[in-house]
Each structure stands twice: as C-alpha cells, then as structure tokens.
Design a protein that fits this description.
heterodimer; A: mainly beta; Immunoglobulin-like; four-stranded antiparallel beta sheet; globular; B: mainly beta; six-stranded mixed beta sheet
Chain lengths: 115, 115
C-alpha cells in the first residue's frame, strides 16, 4: 500500500513570495490533515478535511494561508505572501475516517525555509 | 484545557541500556493515547496506541507503553535501545469525537544514543 505522498520535499523562498505544497493521501482515506511543525515543537494542526469539506480550519492563518481538497482526494496548501516565521516543516496526514481507524498516517513533509 | 506534557526535551542513553520516555496528559476522561517517532528528515510513524483494555501496550520496534489512569501517564519503554532508535518521540492524545478526532501533541523528546 502506497503511503502519503508530499511534494516538494524542500523549498527555499524569499519573504513575500508565494509557495504551494501538494499532498496525496493513502487511497480510500477520507480525512486529510495539514500540520505545521516548527523546529523543536510538536505538530500544530492547520486544517482538517473530511472528503472535500473542511472540518476545522480554526488555526489556519487565513490572511495568508489557503488550502483545498478538490474531489476529496489530493490537497494543496498555499502560502501567499510568506513570512520568515512560516519557516517550518509542513506535514500532511490522512486517516481512514474519524472514529473508525483514528490512526493518522504521515507523509515525509515539506521543509520550507523563508529567507 | 486538554494538554500533553513530555517533561524531558532531551534524553541521552547508552546503546543497550533501557529507556523510558515520560508522557502526562490532562483530560477529564480516558482518551485515546499514541506514541509516534520521527527520524531526522522523516514524517511521523505510529509506534503504538492505546484505546482500551490491557494497559500495557506492545508496539513496533520493540517498544511498549503503559497507561496509568491514576497518574494520567502513558510512558514509553524499551528494554534495550539500538543506535537506530535515535529520533524524536511524540506523545499524542485523542479526546475523541468531542474534538473531531484531532490529536493533541506533546512537544517531543529527542533521544540521543551514546555508543
């Protein structure tokens, strides 16, 4: 079974530029999560999708971050414009469905450096 | 408020020695409990989980964890560590349906193995 795929693995941009990350969850997984992980900290949930609907985006900085999951499969997370404090690893995870498996499977992450 | 505490930021252990990583949580009821491991440059991998039943849980890579309700703890143990266990370990708590099955994460404990 293929795992969660993410691209790119690394990205370096200047502040005020825009960037997009892509995630393809495990086939059949209805729930998709985007996390931000700053060095030395645990993951922070940015947004949770159930199929193509948003379950929770309360911690997503909506003035600069956006995310979509068209057709309920893969997802993109965008930052525009980027700030220095956005430097972090962006992790995508998926789970079968809330309450059924409750296990989240993670991709390798995208390491973003904003200079 | 629900929270997860991993009191040790770093732990150094000699190869072959035993290991215990601490995790305490704050939640009114018994939550779902997880330990994840993150190797350098990698995403998070589930080591083990506790939902109910036997309070001693076996996981992958020779790890085990014990749920102690009276202490609100879910400590991770391994009888003999290997150099490949060097990584960061995260404890996570899942309150369940009340939280959209989201996970609350500890800040992580970095395990350093001495040769």
């Amino acid at each position: 079974e293929a795992g969660v795929a993410q691209s790119p693995r690394y990205k370096i941009i200047e502040k005020r530029q825009s960037v997009a990350f892509w995630c393809n969850p495990i086939s059949g997984h209805a729930t998709l999560y985007w996390y931000q992980q700053i060095l030395g900290q645990g993951p922070k949930l940015l947004i949770q999708f159930q199929n193509n609907g948003v379950v929770d985006d309360s911690q997503l900085p909506k003035d600069r971050f956006s995310a979509e999951r068209l057709k309920g499969v893969d997802s993109t997370l965008k930052i525009q414009p980027a700030k220095l404090e956005d430097s972090a690893v962006y992790l995508c995870a998926s789970s079968l469905a809330p309450g059924q498996a409750y296990e989240q499977y993670f991709g390798p992450g995208t390491r973003l450096t904003v200079t | 408020a629900q929270s997860v505490t991993q009191p040790d930021i770093h732990i150094t252990v000699s190869e072959g020695a035993s290991l215990e990583l601490r995790c305490n949580y704050s939640y009114g009821a018994t939550p779902y409990l997880f330990w994840y491991v993150q190797s350098p440059g990698q995403g998070l991998q589930l080591l083990l989980k506790y939902f109910s039943g036997d309070t001693l849980v076996q996981g992958i890579k020779g790890f085990e964890a014990e749920f102690k309700r009276s202490q609100s703890s879910f400590n991770l143990r391994k009888p003999s560590v290997h150099w490949s266990d060097a990584a960061e370990y995260f404890c996570a708590v899942g309150p369940g349906m009340d939280s959209n099955y989201q996970l609350i994460w500890g800040a992580g404990t970095k395990l350093i193995i001495k040769p």
